[in-house]
Structures are given as C-alpha cells and as structure tokens.
Amino acid sequence: MTTPLEDLLKMEPEEILARNERPKADDLRHKQQIYYEDVAEGMELPKYIYNPTPTHLFRWSAAIENFHRIHYDLDFGLNHDKNPSILVHGSWKQSVVPQYLKDWTLPGGWPWKAQFEHRAMLVPGDILIMWGRVTGKYEKGQMGFVELEIGMKTQDGVESMPGFATVALPLRDGPPLPYPFVPPTD
Amino acid sequence: MARFIAIHNVPGITEADFRDKLDAVRKWRPDRRTTVLKVYGDLETGRLVSECEAVERAHFEDWINLVGWPAESIHQVDMVCQVGNFWKL
Known about the structure:
Number of strands of chain B: 6
Mean pLDDT of chain B: 89
Helix content of chain B: 25-40%
Radius of gyration of chain B: 13 Å
Distance between the termini of chain B: 9 Å
Structural class of chain A: alpha+beta
Number of helices of chain A: 6
Order of helices and strands of chain A: HHHEHHHEEEE
Strand order of the largest sheet of chain A: 1-3-4-5-2
Oligomer: heterodimer
Shape of chain A: elongated
Distance between the termini of chain A: 35 Å
Largest interface: A-B, 18 and 19 residues
Mean pLDDT of chain A: 95
Structural class of chain B: alpha+beta
Shape of chain B: globular
C-alpha cells in the first residue's frame, strides 16, 4: 500500500525520504504482474523519491553530454543566469517517466504513451516525488488500458511536471500482450 | 532574481545555534522565491554576513525574521568578483 501523496506532502523531509518505494533491480526481476482487474480509478502508484545532489547532476550532464553550465557550474548559474542554484535537468526528469511506468507495468505490461510539461526550477536539496494516479481504464482488443495522471512534486507541493500517461496491462484471463507492443487500431 | 547581503550582529551565538538555524533545507531555502546562498560567521564577535538570491528584498527579510538574526544593514549586490571572475548582476 503506497503512502498517499497528500500525506507525503505533510511530512518532514526525512520522513518523505524514508517512504521511497523505488524498487531495487532484484525486486523488479521477481515482480508480480499487476493485471487490469487489479486497478481501480483513484488508485495511486508507488512513490519514487529523489533527492538530487550536485554529483547526480554532474553525472547526468556527463552521461548525456549536455555541458550547459547551468547544470554544474554554481557561479555561472547564480551570477550569469540568476538561477537559485544549479538546475536539475529536464531530460533527467523526462527519463524518470518511462522508467516509472515500465516498473509499474512489467513484466507483461507496457507503457504506451505519456505527455508532460516541465515547470518549476528544481535544485539540489529539493526532494522530488514521482507520483501517478489512475484516472480511467478501458478494455480493447483483449488488452487492458489504464489512464494515469502523473507528475513530480517537490517536498513543498510544487508540481514540476504535470502530465498524463496511458499504459497497457494484461487481462487476468486474457492472452499476453504482444511483444513488441502494438497499440490497437480503431 | 536579485542578490542581497545582510550584516548581522548576534552576540553570544554558538556553533550549535549557527548550525541549528541553517541545517535544514527548509531554512536554507525557506520557500521557492528565496535561496540563502552563504552565511559567513565570526562566532567570537557574533558578526555574520548572509547572502541571498531572492525575487525581492522583502523575501530576504522574511528569512531574516525566520532565523531571528537582526540585520544591521541589508544591501543589494550589483557586482561580484569571485576567484578572478567578474559578474555584473
């Protein structure tokens, strides 16, 4: 049972960090499938909690070869761009979304589509909560589709990445989803 | 955003007081419009200098009230030289 987002946002930073539900690799290897029938409107997905540090930002800059100084050069960020600190990369936030949806739907489900906006400047020291909530579901072509509202909130409740996603889950008594996933046509 | 510094006089301040006021994230960045960048402390004399990035001076003053270190003066910073780099703010 995940901690409701509303409750998390009332907690002290240390308590929020202790509620991280991000699975380890081994948990994912042995994860039980969530079936379409297990999902109900209003249900919240597990919360992934992040607490990015300058080291994380530097590593991401190097990994994706984005060397814009606002992400690792504090003097430049503060004095040139007048930012409050070095900034968390939008591309890193963007990378969390497919991981989050993939983790929730595997081993037999698929993330289908997601859309979101980048809002708010996130800085080291912020606590970030990746969250999702079921807003609807429907069956089509012997597959289950789940519509989600998703986002990444800061510890003080600012929504930095409001968005929506649709994932496909297998039906409990249905066939496996196709591999690779092919969405149904109308 | 604008840069401000304040000069505080806090006689009797201890290292524990200093740490306690500044330790938590919520205090170094009390809200999303105010970022306390650095605080220099001379604990022997109780003189402190704090540096803040804020949308406006009133936001910095809110933080000063929050920590309870009276400011003798507050200044808006126009120019910085840091390890040989000049920044005109």
